[in-house]
Write a structure and sequence with these properties.
Number of helices: 13
CATH superfamily of the largest domain: Glucose-6-phosphate isomerase like protein, domain 1
CATH topology of the largest domain: Rossmann fold
Strand order of the largest sheet: 1-10-9-7-8
CATH class of the largest domain: Alpha Beta
Low-confidence stretches: 1-5
Oligomer: single chain
Strand content: 5-15%
Radius of gyration: 20 Å
Distance between the termini: 55 Å
Number of strands: 10
Structural class: alpha/beta
Helix content: 40-55%
Largest sheet: 5 strands, parallel
Number of domains: 2
Length: about 350
């Protein structure tokens, strides 16, 4: 029979020491340092000036750098200035001189993002780049567009704090949102708990030899996507994500007619309304009736920022421990790097 268990917040677990030898580049220390990274990233001085009224914000990026934009869009969903995340070689056609375009590329060499930078120049947008270096830094200097320099030497997906929190400071400075310092301080305090690591150990065990399905409602959908991509890159497994209530109109039919071994993670919070919670309950019932195991995770926190990043932190631990259970190093992404080599150098 399918399991149907909630994550226990007071569970203390020990992971076998001999598994850690597969973490050859010490991803564990990076994940453990998440709260400190947030603290440093938010305190970074943003010496950037953007003049004039801003009618909309576009965050251009790919991979982990774009995920920061997805989270920002969800976090600031109630602000009057619309935020769009742009993935690809070109910006939306309505980008113009009243658009703030945040070019987010941790490496500074992501070709789609470099192309978007050039598109923003052509469209006379207000541009601010966030990068650790690379071609984007050189282009920003050459074109005299503002740039926020962030620390180098990390995997882009592990640098989420440095992609998100300087961006938040920028949006505070240009008055897209109010000062969020109290919320950031509360988040940092909340992340300093062993429960995230313990839950990572527990959940990762459930995912061994299973295909993860990560489901959430609209507000936490970027978190579900982050879980999916971390499982792809850290754990080197296939994973899927979707959001309520769209998945009830299509994906659930396909799942129920497959013989694959799925395990569904449902990210829930008190943000979910009554009808959304009912959808989740009914979906869970149908999944368990089909012998598809389900783990409910109640995402808690006094603020939306805490909810978002607490869930992200837990997912990072899940992907880390699942990698070790499969006896693989969570850091390298050889397939992606080989693909980039075959693609060849992009001339920015």
């Amino acid at each position: 029979m399918a399991e149907n268990e909630d994550v226990m917040e007071d569970e203390e677990l020990v992971f076998p020491d001999d598994y850690y030898k597969y973490d050859k580049e010490d991803m564990k220390s990076v994940i453990q340092g998440f709260a400190s990274q947030i603290n440093l990233a938010y305190k970074q001085k943003i010496d950037v000036e953007v003049e004039g009224d801003i009618k909309k914000v576009i965050i251009a990026g790919m991979g982990g750098s774009a995920v920061a934009g997805d989270i920002m869009k969800s976090f600031l969903r109630d602000e009057p200035t619309p935020i769009t995340v742009s993935r690809g070689y070109n910006l939306p056609k309505d980008a113009n001189k009243e658009t703030l375009v945040i070019i987010s590329s941790y490496s500074g060499n992501t070709e789609e993002t470099l192309s978007s930078y050039k598109d923003a120049l052509r469209k006379s947008c207000r541009i601010v780049s966030i990068t650790s270096g690379g071609k984007l830094l050189h282009l920003s200097i050459a074109n005299r567009t503002p740039v926020i320099k962030i620390p180098t030497g990390m995997q882009p997906r592990a640098a989420l704090a440095y992609s998100f929190f300087p961006m938040l400071r920028l949006l505070e400075k240009v008055r897209i949102t109010s000062n969020r310092k109290p919320e950031v301080e509360q988040l940092i305090k909340n992340l300093d708990k062993k429960v995230f690591m313990d839950n990572g150990i527990t959940i990762s065990e459930k995912l061994v030899d299973k295909i993860p399905l990560i489901y959430a409602s609209e507000v936490l959908a970027p978190v579900a996507y982050r879980w999916k991509t971390q499982l792809n890159e850290n754990s080197k497994v296939m994973a899927f994500y979707n959001e309520f209530s769209e998945l009830n109109h299509n994906e659930m039919q396909g799942i129920f007619n497959q013989n694959a071994h799925f395990h569904c993670i449902m990210l829930r919070s008190d943000i979910d309304g009554h009808r959304m919670s009912k959808r989740m309950d009914i979906t869970k019932k149908h999944l368990t009736n089909k012998d598809i195991s389900v783990t409910d995770i109640a995402i808690k926190g006094n603020t939306l920022l805490t909810k978002l990043f607490s869930a992200i932190h837990m997912g990072d631990w899940v992907s880390y421990f699942l990698a070790l259970r499969y006896l693989v190093d969570p850091t390298p992404v050889e397939v992606i790097e080989e693909f980039k080599k075959e693609l060849g150098t992009y001339i920015a």
